[in-house]
Amino acid sequence: MSNKKIFVTQPSLAPLEEYVEILRGVWERGILTHNGPLVQQLEKDLESKLGLDYFTVVSNGTIAIQMAIKALELKGEIITTPFTWVATVSAIKWEECTPVFCDIDPDTLNMDPAKIEALITDKTVAIMPVHVFGNPCDVEAIAAIAQKHGLKVIYDAAHAIGSTYKGNSLLTYGDISATSLHATKLLNTAEGGGCITTDAALDARLKRIRFFGHDENKDIVEDGFNGKLTEVHAALGLANLKYYDEVLEDRKNKYQYYIERLQEVEGVRFQEVKGGETNYSYFPIIFESEEQLLQVEKALNAADIFPRRYFYPSVNTYTKVVAYQACPVSEDISERILCLPLYLNLKEGEQDKICEIINTL
Ligand SMILES: Cc1ncc(COP(=O)(O)O)c(C=O)c1O
Questions:
Q1: For the CA atoms of the chain, what is the radius of gyration?
Q2: Which side of the chain, N or C, has fewer Cβ within a 10 Å radius?
Q3: What SS3 state is found at 194?
Q4: Which atom of ligand 1 is closest in space to residue 64's alpha carbon?
Q5: Distance 158 CA to ligand 1 centre (A)
Protein backbone atom coordinates (compact mmCIF):
# COMPACT_ATOMS: atom_id res chain seq x y z
CA MET A 1 0.00 0.00 0.00
CA SER A 2 1.24 3.52 -0.77
CA ASN A 3 2.32 5.78 2.05
CA LYS A 4 0.06 8.66 1.14
CA LYS A 5 -1.47 10.64 3.96
CA ILE A 6 -5.06 9.76 4.83
CA PHE A 7 -7.15 12.65 6.09
CA VAL A 8 -10.54 12.53 7.75
CA THR A 9 -12.28 13.47 4.52
CA GLN A 10 -11.83 14.34 0.87
CA PRO A 11 -14.40 16.06 -1.33
CA SER A 12 -16.51 13.92 -3.65
CA LEU A 13 -15.93 15.33 -7.12
CA ALA A 14 -17.49 14.53 -10.48
CA PRO A 15 -15.02 13.92 -13.35
CA LEU A 16 -13.41 17.25 -14.30
CA GLU A 17 -14.55 17.00 -17.96
CA GLU A 18 -18.18 16.87 -16.85
CA TYR A 19 -17.75 19.98 -14.71
CA VAL A 20 -15.97 21.78 -17.56
CA GLU A 21 -18.79 20.87 -19.94
CA ILE A 22 -21.34 22.58 -17.67
CA LEU A 23 -19.01 25.57 -17.26
CA ARG A 24 -18.90 26.00 -21.04
CA GLY A 25 -22.49 27.25 -20.88
CA VAL A 26 -21.56 29.75 -18.18
CA TRP A 27 -18.85 31.19 -20.44
CA GLU A 28 -21.23 31.29 -23.41
CA ARG A 29 -23.99 33.05 -21.49
CA GLY A 30 -21.67 35.37 -19.59
CA ILE A 31 -23.90 35.09 -16.53
CA LEU A 32 -21.88 34.41 -13.40
CA THR A 33 -24.33 35.14 -10.61
CA HIS A 34 -27.67 36.80 -9.69
CA ASN A 35 -29.98 33.79 -9.64
CA GLY A 36 -28.63 32.50 -12.95
CA PRO A 37 -29.97 29.48 -14.85
CA LEU A 38 -27.66 26.97 -13.13
CA VAL A 39 -28.65 28.16 -9.65
CA GLN A 40 -32.29 27.73 -10.65
CA GLN A 41 -31.56 24.32 -12.16
CA LEU A 42 -29.71 23.17 -9.04
CA GLU A 43 -32.63 24.22 -6.84
CA LYS A 44 -35.11 22.38 -9.08
CA ASP A 45 -32.96 19.24 -9.22
CA LEU A 46 -32.39 19.21 -5.45
CA GLU A 47 -36.10 19.63 -4.81
CA SER A 48 -37.00 16.73 -7.06
CA LYS A 49 -34.11 14.48 -5.98
CA LEU A 50 -34.78 14.94 -2.26
CA GLY A 51 -38.56 15.35 -2.42
CA LEU A 52 -38.61 18.92 -1.09
CA ASP A 53 -41.03 21.78 -1.71
CA TYR A 54 -38.52 24.66 -1.68
CA PHE A 55 -34.73 24.65 -1.61
CA THR A 56 -33.10 28.08 -1.82
CA VAL A 57 -29.38 27.71 -2.45
CA VAL A 58 -27.08 30.21 -0.75
CA SER A 59 -23.39 30.96 -0.46
CA ASN A 60 -22.69 28.80 2.62
CA GLY A 61 -24.35 26.97 5.51
CA THR A 62 -23.63 29.65 8.08
CA ILE A 63 -25.44 32.27 5.98
CA ALA A 64 -28.30 29.76 5.57
CA ILE A 65 -28.77 29.70 9.37
CA GLN A 66 -28.61 33.50 9.56
CA MET A 67 -31.15 33.83 6.75
CA ALA A 68 -33.50 31.40 8.52
CA ILE A 69 -33.36 33.50 11.70
CA LYS A 70 -33.88 36.69 9.68
CA ALA A 71 -36.78 35.27 7.65
CA LEU A 72 -38.59 34.17 10.83
CA GLU A 73 -37.90 37.60 12.40
CA LEU A 74 -36.49 36.11 15.58
CA LYS A 75 -35.16 38.28 18.38
CA GLY A 76 -34.48 36.71 21.76
CA GLU A 77 -33.16 33.43 23.12
CA ILE A 78 -32.62 30.45 20.85
CA ILE A 79 -32.18 27.07 22.50
CA THR A 80 -29.44 25.17 20.72
CA THR A 81 -26.90 22.43 21.27
CA PRO A 82 -23.32 22.83 22.48
CA PHE A 83 -22.30 19.70 20.56
CA THR A 84 -21.90 21.39 17.19
CA TRP A 85 -19.59 23.40 15.01
CA VAL A 86 -19.15 26.98 16.24
CA ALA A 87 -21.03 28.27 13.15
CA THR A 88 -24.40 27.33 14.69
CA VAL A 89 -23.75 29.68 17.57
CA SER A 90 -22.00 32.44 15.65
CA ALA A 91 -24.97 32.60 13.24
CA ILE A 92 -27.33 33.02 16.22
CA LYS A 93 -25.12 35.77 17.62
CA TRP A 94 -24.74 37.60 14.29
CA GLU A 95 -28.52 37.80 14.17
CA GLU A 96 -28.43 39.42 17.61
CA CYS A 97 -30.09 36.51 19.36
CA THR A 98 -28.79 34.76 22.47
CA PRO A 99 -27.76 31.10 22.38
CA VAL A 100 -29.00 29.01 25.31
CA PHE A 101 -27.39 25.59 25.50
CA CYS A 102 -29.39 22.41 25.93
CA ASP A 103 -27.30 19.34 26.76
CA ILE A 104 -27.27 16.29 24.50
CA ASP A 105 -28.35 12.68 24.63
CA PRO A 106 -25.14 10.66 25.20
CA ASP A 107 -26.24 7.97 22.72
CA THR A 108 -27.58 9.93 19.73
CA LEU A 109 -25.33 12.99 20.39
CA ASN A 110 -28.31 15.19 19.45
CA MET A 111 -30.07 17.73 21.68
CA ASP A 112 -31.91 15.87 24.44
CA PRO A 113 -35.60 16.82 24.05
CA ALA A 114 -36.23 15.99 27.73
CA LYS A 115 -33.97 18.89 28.70
CA ILE A 116 -35.52 21.59 26.48
CA GLU A 117 -38.54 22.70 28.48
CA ALA A 118 -36.56 23.61 31.60
CA LEU A 119 -34.63 26.16 29.48
CA ILE A 120 -37.68 27.97 28.07
CA THR A 121 -38.14 31.51 29.40
CA ASP A 122 -40.34 34.43 28.33
CA LYS A 123 -37.49 35.46 26.01
CA THR A 124 -37.27 32.14 24.16
CA VAL A 125 -38.22 32.46 20.49
CA ALA A 126 -36.93 29.28 18.86
CA ILE A 127 -35.25 25.90 19.16
CA MET A 128 -32.27 25.19 16.91
CA PRO A 129 -31.16 21.57 17.12
CA VAL A 130 -28.46 20.04 14.93
CA HIS A 131 -28.82 16.66 13.20
CA VAL A 132 -25.36 15.68 14.40
CA PHE A 133 -23.35 13.75 11.80
CA GLY A 134 -26.61 13.36 9.83
CA ASN A 135 -28.31 11.47 12.67
CA PRO A 136 -31.98 12.51 12.77
CA CYS A 137 -33.06 14.43 15.89
CA ASP A 138 -36.26 13.41 17.62
CA VAL A 139 -38.20 15.72 15.30
CA GLU A 140 -41.61 14.75 16.67
CA ALA A 141 -40.78 15.45 20.32
CA ILE A 142 -39.18 18.77 19.33
CA ALA A 143 -42.19 19.78 17.20
CA ALA A 144 -44.54 18.99 20.13
CA ILE A 145 -42.51 21.18 22.55
CA ALA A 146 -42.32 24.01 20.01
CA GLN A 147 -46.03 23.89 19.38
CA LYS A 148 -46.87 23.83 23.09
CA HIS A 149 -44.77 26.95 23.74
CA GLY A 150 -45.34 28.81 20.46
CA LEU A 151 -41.69 28.54 19.35
CA LYS A 152 -40.15 28.30 15.89
CA VAL A 153 -37.86 25.41 14.96
CA ILE A 154 -34.83 25.87 12.74
CA TYR A 155 -32.76 22.76 12.13
CA ASP A 156 -29.07 23.15 11.59
CA ALA A 157 -29.10 20.45 8.94
CA ALA A 158 -25.55 21.16 7.76
CA HIS A 159 -24.75 17.42 7.86
CA ALA A 160 -28.17 16.10 6.90
CA ILE A 161 -28.59 15.94 3.11
CA GLY A 162 -29.49 12.32 2.43
CA SER A 163 -30.85 11.55 5.92
CA THR A 164 -34.49 10.56 6.19
CA TYR A 165 -37.22 10.34 8.80
CA LYS A 166 -40.31 8.18 8.18
CA GLY A 167 -39.33 7.98 4.54
CA ASN A 168 -39.15 11.77 4.04
CA SER A 169 -36.04 13.86 3.64
CA LEU A 170 -34.99 15.04 7.09
CA LEU A 171 -34.77 18.53 5.59
CA THR A 172 -38.57 18.78 5.46
CA TYR A 173 -38.82 19.10 9.27
CA GLY A 174 -38.91 22.33 11.25
CA ASP A 175 -40.01 25.76 9.99
CA ILE A 176 -36.73 25.98 8.08
CA SER A 177 -33.80 23.60 7.71
CA ALA A 178 -30.44 25.16 6.95
CA THR A 179 -27.98 22.89 5.20
CA SER A 180 -24.40 23.11 4.00
CA LEU A 181 -22.94 22.25 0.58
CA HIS A 182 -19.38 22.78 1.82
CA ALA A 183 -16.52 20.78 0.28
CA THR A 184 -16.58 18.29 3.17
CA LYS A 185 -20.28 17.49 2.82
CA LEU A 186 -21.91 14.54 1.08
CA LEU A 187 -22.92 16.83 -1.78
CA ASN A 188 -20.78 19.88 -2.37
CA THR A 189 -20.57 23.09 -4.37
CA ALA A 190 -17.11 23.86 -2.81
CA GLU A 191 -18.76 26.50 -0.61
CA GLY A 192 -22.54 26.63 -0.48
CA GLY A 193 -25.65 25.91 1.49
CA GLY A 194 -29.40 26.14 1.42
CA CYS A 195 -32.61 26.97 3.25
CA ILE A 196 -35.39 24.42 2.96
CA THR A 197 -39.02 25.04 3.84
CA THR A 198 -42.50 23.81 2.94
CA ASP A 199 -43.95 27.34 3.16
CA ALA A 200 -44.14 29.20 -0.19
CA ALA A 201 -44.33 32.68 1.39
CA LEU A 202 -41.35 31.96 3.62
CA ASP A 203 -39.39 30.68 0.65
CA ALA A 204 -40.16 33.85 -1.34
CA ARG A 205 -38.92 35.88 1.61
CA LEU A 206 -35.71 33.83 1.86
CA LYS A 207 -35.07 34.47 -1.84
CA ARG A 208 -35.54 38.22 -1.30
CA ILE A 209 -33.24 38.23 1.72
CA ARG A 210 -30.60 36.39 -0.32
CA PHE A 211 -30.70 39.18 -2.92
CA PHE A 212 -30.32 42.39 -0.87
CA GLY A 213 -34.04 42.45 -0.02
CA HIS A 214 -35.19 43.05 -3.64
CA ASP A 215 -38.60 41.95 -4.80
CA GLU A 216 -39.35 41.01 -8.43
CA ASN A 217 -39.83 44.70 -9.31
CA LYS A 218 -36.37 45.54 -7.96
CA ASP A 219 -37.94 47.39 -5.05
CA ILE A 220 -36.18 46.98 -1.70
CA VAL A 221 -38.83 45.43 0.53
CA GLU A 222 -36.78 43.52 3.12
CA ASP A 223 -33.69 44.02 5.19
CA GLY A 224 -31.66 41.60 3.08
CA PHE A 225 -28.03 40.86 2.35
CA ASN A 226 -25.91 39.05 -0.19
CA GLY A 227 -26.38 35.30 0.22
CA LYS A 228 -26.14 34.40 -3.47
CA LEU A 229 -24.48 31.28 -4.84
CA THR A 230 -22.52 31.80 -8.07
CA GLU A 231 -23.09 29.96 -11.34
CA VAL A 232 -19.58 28.48 -11.07
CA HIS A 233 -20.50 26.88 -7.73
CA ALA A 234 -23.93 25.80 -8.96
CA ALA A 235 -22.24 24.11 -11.94
CA LEU A 236 -20.13 22.05 -9.55
CA GLY A 237 -23.24 21.14 -7.57
CA LEU A 238 -25.01 19.96 -10.74
CA ALA A 239 -21.97 17.92 -11.81
CA ASN A 240 -21.67 16.33 -8.36
CA LEU A 241 -25.41 15.71 -8.00
CA LYS A 242 -25.17 13.09 -10.76
CA TYR A 243 -23.00 11.02 -8.39
CA TYR A 244 -25.04 11.66 -5.25
CA ASP A 245 -26.59 8.15 -5.07
CA GLU A 246 -23.21 6.53 -5.58
CA VAL A 247 -21.64 8.65 -2.83
CA LEU A 248 -24.49 7.90 -0.42
CA GLU A 249 -24.32 4.15 -1.05
CA ASP A 250 -20.54 4.14 -0.72
CA ARG A 251 -20.68 5.96 2.65
CA LYS A 252 -23.20 3.45 3.97
CA ASN A 253 -21.05 0.49 2.93
CA LYS A 254 -17.89 1.96 4.43
CA TYR A 255 -19.71 2.93 7.64
CA GLN A 256 -20.94 -0.64 8.05
CA TYR A 257 -17.50 -2.01 7.24
CA TYR A 258 -16.05 0.06 10.12
CA ILE A 259 -18.77 -1.15 12.51
CA GLU A 260 -18.08 -4.80 11.66
CA ARG A 261 -14.36 -4.42 12.24
CA LEU A 262 -14.46 -2.24 15.33
CA GLN A 263 -17.38 -3.58 17.32
CA GLU A 264 -15.23 -5.88 19.43
CA VAL A 265 -12.77 -3.15 20.48
CA GLU A 266 -12.93 -2.77 24.23
CA GLY A 267 -14.06 0.63 25.45
CA VAL A 268 -15.35 1.82 22.08
CA ARG A 269 -18.93 2.62 21.13
CA PHE A 270 -20.75 4.26 18.21
CA GLN A 271 -23.39 6.95 17.74
CA GLU A 272 -26.90 5.49 18.06
CA VAL A 273 -29.48 6.15 15.39
CA LYS A 274 -32.83 5.90 17.17
CA GLY A 275 -35.35 7.23 14.64
CA GLY A 276 -35.07 7.67 10.90
CA GLU A 277 -32.00 6.88 8.84
CA THR A 278 -28.69 8.68 8.91
CA ASN A 279 -26.79 9.50 5.70
CA TYR A 280 -23.67 7.83 7.11
CA SER A 281 -21.66 10.90 6.28
CA TYR A 282 -19.26 10.69 9.24
CA PHE A 283 -17.88 7.83 11.27
CA PRO A 284 -17.48 8.97 14.88
CA ILE A 285 -16.21 6.59 17.56
CA ILE A 286 -16.58 7.28 21.25
CA PHE A 287 -13.85 6.06 23.58
CA GLU A 288 -14.11 5.35 27.29
CA SER A 289 -11.58 8.05 28.10
CA GLU A 290 -9.68 10.91 26.48
CA GLU A 291 -6.50 9.01 27.29
CA GLN A 292 -7.62 6.10 25.11
CA LEU A 293 -8.54 8.54 22.32
CA LEU A 294 -5.15 10.24 22.46
CA GLN A 295 -3.39 6.89 22.31
CA VAL A 296 -5.34 5.85 19.21
CA GLU A 297 -4.88 9.27 17.57
CA LYS A 298 -1.13 9.11 18.15
CA ALA A 299 -0.85 5.63 16.67
CA LEU A 300 -2.90 6.61 13.61
CA ASN A 301 -0.91 9.83 13.10
CA ALA A 302 2.31 7.80 13.23
CA ALA A 303 0.94 5.83 10.26
CA ASP A 304 0.09 9.08 8.39
CA ILE A 305 -3.61 8.75 9.17
CA PHE A 306 -5.33 11.89 10.43
CA PRO A 307 -8.75 11.40 12.02
CA ARG A 308 -10.40 14.50 13.49
CA ARG A 309 -11.55 15.36 16.98
CA TYR A 310 -15.02 16.59 16.05
CA PHE A 311 -16.86 18.29 17.72
CA TYR A 312 -14.18 19.34 20.13
CA PRO A 313 -14.29 21.23 22.35
CA SER A 314 -17.96 21.59 23.32
CA VAL A 315 -19.09 25.03 22.06
CA ASN A 316 -20.43 26.13 25.48
CA THR A 317 -16.81 26.20 26.65
CA TYR A 318 -15.75 28.84 24.09
CA THR A 319 -15.87 31.48 26.77
CA LYS A 320 -14.39 34.20 24.56
CA VAL A 321 -17.61 34.18 22.52
CA VAL A 322 -20.30 32.70 24.80
CA ALA A 323 -21.21 32.87 28.46
CA TYR A 324 -20.41 29.44 29.91
CA GLN A 325 -23.46 27.31 30.68
CA ALA A 326 -22.67 23.84 32.02
CA CYS A 327 -23.52 20.94 29.68
CA PRO A 328 -21.74 18.00 31.29
CA VAL A 329 -22.74 15.36 28.73
CA SER A 330 -21.56 17.38 25.73
CA GLU A 331 -18.35 18.44 27.50
CA ASP A 332 -17.60 14.84 28.39
CA ILE A 333 -18.39 13.31 24.98
CA SER A 334 -16.48 15.98 23.06
CA GLU A 335 -13.31 14.97 24.89
CA ARG A 336 -13.58 11.34 23.84
CA ILE A 337 -14.97 11.39 20.30
CA LEU A 338 -12.96 10.94 17.13
CA CYS A 339 -14.16 10.95 13.51
CA LEU A 340 -12.40 8.37 11.37
CA PRO A 341 -11.58 8.90 7.68
CA LEU A 342 -14.67 8.37 5.52
CA TYR A 343 -14.93 9.43 1.87
CA LEU A 344 -15.54 8.09 -1.61
CA ASN A 345 -11.91 7.46 -2.54
CA LEU A 346 -10.99 5.76 0.73
CA LYS A 347 -9.80 2.26 -0.17
CA GLU A 348 -10.80 -0.94 1.60
CA GLY A 349 -7.14 -1.61 2.40
CA GLU A 350 -6.87 1.81 4.01
CA GLN A 351 -9.94 1.12 6.16
CA ASP A 352 -8.40 -2.23 7.12
CA LYS A 353 -5.18 -0.51 8.16
CA ILE A 354 -7.10 1.99 10.34
CA CYS A 355 -9.10 -0.78 11.99
CA GLU A 356 -6.01 -2.91 12.54
CA ILE A 357 -4.23 -0.08 14.36
CA ILE A 358 -7.26 0.55 16.58
CA ASN A 359 -7.75 -3.15 17.22
CA THR A 360 -4.19 -3.79 18.27
CA LEU A 361 -3.98 -1.04 20.92
C1 LIG B 1 -23.12 21.62 12.38
C2 LIG B 1 -22.66 22.68 11.43
N3 LIG B 1 -23.38 23.80 11.30
C4 LIG B 1 -23.04 24.77 10.42
C5 LIG B 1 -21.92 24.64 9.62
C6 LIG B 1 -21.55 25.75 8.69
O7 LIG B 1 -21.60 25.38 7.35
P8 LIG B 1 -20.69 26.14 6.28
O9 LIG B 1 -19.29 25.67 6.46
O10 LIG B 1 -21.27 25.73 4.95
O11 LIG B 1 -20.83 27.61 6.54
C12 LIG B 1 -21.13 23.49 9.73
C13 LIG B 1 -19.93 23.35 8.89
O14 LIG B 1 -19.33 22.34 8.76
C15 LIG B 1 -21.50 22.48 10.65
O16 LIG B 1 -20.77 21.37 10.80
A1: 21
A2: N
A3: strand
A4: 11
A5: 5
